[in-house]
Amino acid sequence: MHYVKVKGILSAKNGMNIYRGCSHGCIYCDSRSNCYGFTHEFEDIEVKENAVELLEQALKSKRKKCMIGTGAMCDPYMHIEEKLCLTRQCLELIDKYEFGVAIQTKSDRILRDIDLLKSINMKAKAVVQMTLTTYDEKLCKILEPNVSTTRERFEVLMECKKAGIPTVVWLSPILPFINDTEENIRGILNYCVQAGVKGIICFDMGVTLRDGDREYFYQALDKYFPGMKLKYIKNYGNAYELSSPESKRLMEIFREVCKANGIMYDVEECFRYLNEFPEKYVQQSLFDIN
To answer: How large is the greatest C-alpha to C-alpha distance in the chain, in angstroms?
Structure first.
């Protein structure tokens, strides 16, 4: 872990990353890719020590309320968050200034902050996004070794349901020849149905690999799935998008289950939902001003 001071915390689309790097160890992690320009070891977490101060400045200067997103690049609930509590401090500011939040994680540490998420959701809108990839718990510990298991993440979704906090699941990635099975997809979808998720984001049944990420992934394949790397190279070469041979059939199952249970599954519709600040709150704010 090391500290840096940065000039800004919010992107043009109101996304933020408090940390850079990750300690979860997921074997497929795209954030390891060379294109992101890491100049330090990925597990040596970079902490933006002035993130809270910058966020408050940004929120105070905004003319309109909006959704603040976090977790797209690096998980806001890594192990160091237990000690540093920077994510919690940022949520306190979002709550204080009555903005919305869409927060993505694979960790049940988010339950520590469910009080703030409930408060934000009462004033504006809070959406918890949870990544689910692997129904089998033993396989999950291989693919995502240092983070909450799928079952534990499902329990987070259930707690959010009880608290009235809407949830969106990222069904991604699905690794060809590893977890691209009907049993796996139906298991995850059953969790989603039980938890009453608002939407599920799934671009395709597959995975993407770039330089940097690919090498780490292949090392893991050699370690845990002997012979699998050669199968990947034979079938995909150096491709960026690696679609499962089962993708068409599994996507049909995915869409059928979503339709039957009233779950959003169109990717653009899901993103609109995540980014839209509730109109009723905007109207109430205007009424208060008048």
So the answer is: 68
Q: How many residues does the chain have?
A: 290
Apex CA 143: angle with CA 137 and CA 149, to 5°? 35
Q: Decide if 88 contacts 112 (C-beta within 8 A).
A: yes
The helix (H) or strand (E) run that includes residue 3 is: strand 2-4
C-beta of residue 167 within 8 angstroms of C-beta of residue 197: yes
**Bond preceding residue 76 cis, omega within 30 of 0:** no
- Residue 133, SS3? coil
Six-digit token string for 79: 């192990």
Sign of the dihedral defined by the CA atoms of residues 42, 34, 237, 135, in that order: positive
CA dist., res. 133 & res. 149, Å (int)? 10
Q: Which tokens go with 97?
A: 């200034």
Over residues 110-144, the pLDDT tens digits come to: 999 999 999 999 999 999 999 999 999 999 999 99
* Secondary structure of residue 173 in the 3-state scheme: coil
Reading the block at residue 137, the tokens are 């718990």
E strand segments, 81-238 = 100-105, 126-132, 167-171, 199-201, 206-208
